[in-house]
Amino acid sequence: MSLWYPYLIIGTAMNIEKQYDVDGLVRGYVDGSLENEQNDLGRQFLRERVDIFDRSSSLLDIGCGNGMDLKVYAGMGFTHLYGVDPSENFLQEARELLNGKIKLSEGVFEQLPFENEMFDVVVSRHALHYSHNLTRAAIEVARVLKSGGAFIVVISHPFADALLPRDEEGNVTATLFNGAVSIIFPQHALSDLFSASFLDLFELDLLYEYVGNERDGAVAEIPNTLAFIAIKK
Q1: Structural domains in the chain plus CATH codes
Q2: What pTM was computed for the model?
Q3: Is 127 in contact with 146 (CB distance < 8 Å)?
């Protein structure tokens, strides 16, 4: 199974699947996210768009991390919330933060552990670009979404990623939170993200690009983050 999440680079490259087994990585990532939360345009984008939905809507957060966004959605009054993440360490933190009140599962974009047409809304913040197979990821999201359901995403911008050097496997590396965390992920073109297969499944409703300040080396003229809303056909 292919996992999409980053790994911390300590000496030699760690196995992607085992990245969050590194002591301190989850805490470093969470601390950076908490410090940056008020200035996080991606989180603002997600929360503003989620706010328009009926509170009875079923919502899945893919790449839920420690559950801080799910906690906000619960505070907004949503009662049918689910989270999925490949990291058991992150999921343990999420269970503690959410007091076991939200269903959390281990899983990845390309193989979601849910029934067909289960959700009204699927959200994801900085997780989709770690997928090796974006087409498979889109198919899985469409499978678990109800017809007319919304896929609301914040993703690393392919245009900014194209400026990073690729390794021999086609991956790029970037750092976050002033070098506190180093991430590696496949370099995707915009056409990989919005492929013919994606557009067969979804109708793009909104595109929004911006310069996110969590990523190091941001250049004001070059958006490094892309947000979008797609509606399942």
Answers
A1: 16-232 (3.40.50.150)
A2: 0.89
A3: no
